[in-house]
Amino acid sequence: MTKTNHQTNLSAVHLRKHMRMQRRSLSHCERQRSAYLASRFLYKLIPLLPKKANIGFYLDGFGELPTATIAQFCQKLDYQAYLPITTPNKPLTFTPIIQPLNKTPLKKHRLGMHEPRSKLILSANHMDAIICPLVMVDLNGVRLGMGGGYYDRTFAKAKNCLKIAWCYDFQVTDRLPKQPWDMSVDIIITDQRLIRLK
């Protein structure tokens, strides 16, 4: 590992720790308020999506901006909402949720997150949009994830879908270092704004 890469990795470790602490410092009410504010910007996606769009998103569980409002948005617009299924070192696949979201049977997987119990699996290239978590994202769409590479592998296989970052506004920064394998997002949605990058 070169000195530059070593410094980048140390920086990423520090950023992940700092941002996770900042997210976890928010109260339940603050998180829910932020999710409501962010959900208002979802309606700006309508002109960019086909009717009956397939929307992939994730279940928050580690202090991320809550995502239940995404499921509600999909239900109102008659979009099909999907949750990711993780397989080590492979792109994510997706399975449909049952509306309302709390009717979807879930299980906890090895990374500590919840995913649906379902045998109906679609590849990422069937999604019209994928809304992803992150630690930080910059104004060029470069995202810093948790280091597993799941969304980079997934976005590399789903080139035609809208790639959307969903986060608190304090997770947006001017510039992050970009690695050769990093896949940028097209849109950033926060509790304060929607930023269209492409």
TrEMBL record:
Key word ATP-binding present: yes
Domain of life: Bacteria
InterPro entries: FTHF_cligase, FTHF_cligase-like_sf, NagB/RpiA_transferase-like
Reaction(s) catalysed (UniProt annotation): (6S)-5-formyl-5,6,7,8-tetrahydrofolate + ATP = (6R)-5,10-methenyltetrahydrofolate + ADP + phosphate
Pfam families: 5-FTHF_cyc-lig
GO BP annotations, alphabetical order: folic acid-containing compound biosynthetic process; tetrahydrofolate interconversion
EC number: 6.3.3.2
GO MF term (any one): metal ion binding
Record key words, sorted: ATP-binding, Ligase, Magnesium, Metal-binding, Nucleotide-binding
Cofactors (names): Mg(2+)
Binding site for substrate: L59, E64
Residue numbers binding ATP: R143, L144, G145, M146, G147, G148, G149, Y150, Y151
PANTHER family: 5-FORMYLTETRAHYDROFOLATE CYCLO-LIGASE, ATPASE INHIBITOR/5-FORMYLTETRAHYDROFOLATE CYCLO-LIGASE
Family: Belongs to the 5-formyltetrahydrofolate cyclo-ligase family.
Designated name of the protein: 5-formyltetrahydrofolate cyclo-ligase
Organism: Moraxella catarrhalis
